[in-house]
Amino acid sequence: MNQLRDNLKKLGLSPNHIFQLVKDSIGEDLAGGEDITSVATISSSQVSTADFTTRASGVVSGLHVVAAVLEYCGVTHYEVLVDEGAKVAAGKVLITAQGNTQKILLAERTALNFLSHLSGISTLTSKWVAEVEGTKCQIRDTRKTTPGLRTLEKFATRMGGATNHRLSLSEAALIKDNHIVAAGTISAAFTATKKMFPGKSLEVEVDSIDQLKEVIEFKPDVILLDNMSVQLCQEAVAIAAGKVRLEASGGLTIENAKAYANTGVTYLAVGSLTHSAPALDIGLDFRKGK
Fold first, then answer.
1. Is this prediction's pTM over 0.85?
2. Confidence band (pLDDT; 50, 70, 90) for 290?
């Protein structure tokens, strides 16, 4: 367990958070009872060896979360065979576990849910990153994450090669259209935020070139170009002239990612990395006769 804690910390993950997620997930699966199918069909003393194996190629992440699931369920003999963020082909064995058969089966679905979901995010992210390769633009995630899984999902985007946007509302300020409406003006919203939280990074969302020209004068850390066309992003980059970083958001697809990246913006903010990534097909198979 101590080694697992160290591994999670090295990956930028909180061991206590991961262990609580695992505890809650197994608790949800058992619902106060037991795995009646396994208890009825398998001897409590039976021991097996099982492999977590990819059934499709992709970029894998969440391997050490699987390790946490296995350990919580009482399966302490396992080996993680690939690195987090590794690109693997179909048929690759990622983790081998040996132990009580009932306990491996208890861990199976929760482990696969985490592993397939996170690997799906890393795989999709890697495709976006590949699309903008050769430009100076970075793919950046958003807060459009599954409640309770944000740190893991943002970990998965990092493993896919993306850059994290703010992890929480308290980490950095992002003045959006509703803040501007509520405050009255962009100037009022910016001034109030800068005064109250002078040490925090501050980003402002604009939806027109006129707003961009106004905001540039305030010298925010980043300006978010909301739902602007490629042509408008090019114009915005020319106006900013390197004075401020620009981030394009809205209307982005993997097909037009390169065109947006070539405008010269610093970031593409892509919500679909976390809210629409399909799971990577990964299975758990017992070795026959073992």
1. yes
2. low
